[in-house]
Amino acid sequence: MRTLHAIILAAGEGTRMKSDLPKVLHSICGRPMIAYAIDLAAMAGIKQPIVVLGHGADAVKPTLSKEIKVVIQVKQAGTGDAVLAAKKVLGGVSGDVLILYADTPLLRRTTIQKLIESHFKTGSTCSLLSAHLADPSGYGRILRNETGQITGIVEEAEANAAQRAIREINIGPLVCRTQALLEALASVKPSTSKKELYLTNVISHLARQEGTKIQATRIEEVSEALGINSRTELARAIGVIRQRILDAHLHNGVTIEDPKTTSIDYGVTIGTDTVIHPCTVIERGVSIGKRCSIGPFARLRSGVAIADDVRVGNFVELVRTKIAPRVRVNHMTYLGDATVDEDVNIGAGTITANYDGQAKHPTQIGKGAFIGSDTVLIAPVKIGAGAVTGAGSVVTKAHDVPAKGVVVGVPARPLDGHLREKTAATLTAPLTRERPKRVRNTTPVRLKKKARGRVVTARRAARPRRSSKLSRAMKRTVRRPTARKRQKARR
Fold it and tell me: Could you give the angle at which helices 109-122 and 34-43 cross, rounded to 10 degrees?
């Protein structure tokens, strides 16, 4: 196989995006748009691709790795001029060059691999990617002669009515012999409409040369042809890539109950038999173990690592947090910069106050700890193994809770003696569904009643009710004064 170089064109201004951010830096599922083109070059075995920058170069350059060679296109004079700007760092004119566009993130790795393999297998001078669209508006049309040979590419702005009716479009990426490409670029002239040097003008020049062969590889999915030039197209691309990510996790044994309301970014790892409930957001860099339950309405942000058999319930947000096996974080909780050991229960409403306005601080929760509902842990703070915090406790910073300690109150203070043991035993006791037995007053009351001429003693449960005679007597006592009092009143 001949030497293969790669040039990624990322100098466009992207005026239709209506953004101060360079177009290639807009995020798609947790990573900038340009990262997808860099991945394609890496897949082709090209470790040091050339990236041509122009508009917003100062913002784009810091996001690129050191292995990437950066070239600046001083004046945005077309895609052909951008390739010429990379001529100085190509390292000679031998081999072939792969041209990629930073604003076509939907191309699959298999598609580019197929293009490269077809180019070398057929010994072509230049190989294109093409697609047939029902509505080809906005794309360059591929021109062919009567025998089906490619004779050129015409941009829509310069196409006539007959050419605009053609449905075979040029996707953009191509593989071409380096020397032939550079010679063609030196010979072609800028377009008459925009006075720009289009890379597509090279195709018609090469087609007229003797001994050249130009062939097109048709893409399998039409969605791969989508280029990003507006916010609407960006939203479509996000939807396509997000569905690809979800399909990959489903294929790997993850249950996603409602893919339409679930968002999983690029680079997330999830173990088998884990269930993702609806309305869950999992951002880039998160790792989740096996047999976990996530959501609904959960948000896992970057830096979260969850081990096996963990439950993260509804309205829970985690960021830069490591969770050990068998931890339960079931309701309305925020954990930031926390480390949680195994078998910990996090009560509803627990918050780690990790940010003091200047820096973020860690929280450590030991094995088997029980964090009561509405507990606030003001970092930096450590909760020892088997410790308990009472509901509504506020554990202030640097006031660590020792192993098996029990703290309550605002601010949280330790309990002493049998009360601490009783509280810990109550909170950690296994749950039971048995109802407590009802205790009745069985104090005997002797009643005498006549039955067939003899007195019989009966026993029955005492009732907390007064007899009607006693009630009437009490009323009379309260309402009517005694005779002696009446006499005193008359005197």
Answer: 40
pLDDT score for 422: 59
The count of other CB atoms within 10 Å of the CB of residue 398 is 11
Phi, psi dihedral angles at 79 (to 5 degrees) = -70, -35
Same domain, 120 and 211: yes
Final residue belonging to a domain, choices 225, 249, 276? 225
Whether 209 and 237 map to the same domain: the answer is no
Q: Which of 132, 331, 361, 399 is catalytic?
A: 331
Contacts of 313 (CB under 8 A, 6+ apart): 293, 295, 298, 329, 330, 331
pTM given for the model: 0.81
Unique residue bearing structure tokens 């067939």 = 452
Can you tell me the distance from the alpha carbon of 11 to that of 5, in angstroms, rounded to the nearest whole number?
Answer: 19
- Cis ω for the linkage preceding 380 (within 30 of 0): yes
Interatomic CA distance for residues 108 and 131, integer angstroms: 14
331 part of the active site: yes
Query: Taking 80 as the threshold, does the pLDDT of residue 440 lie above it?
Result: no
Token reading at 174: 């191509």
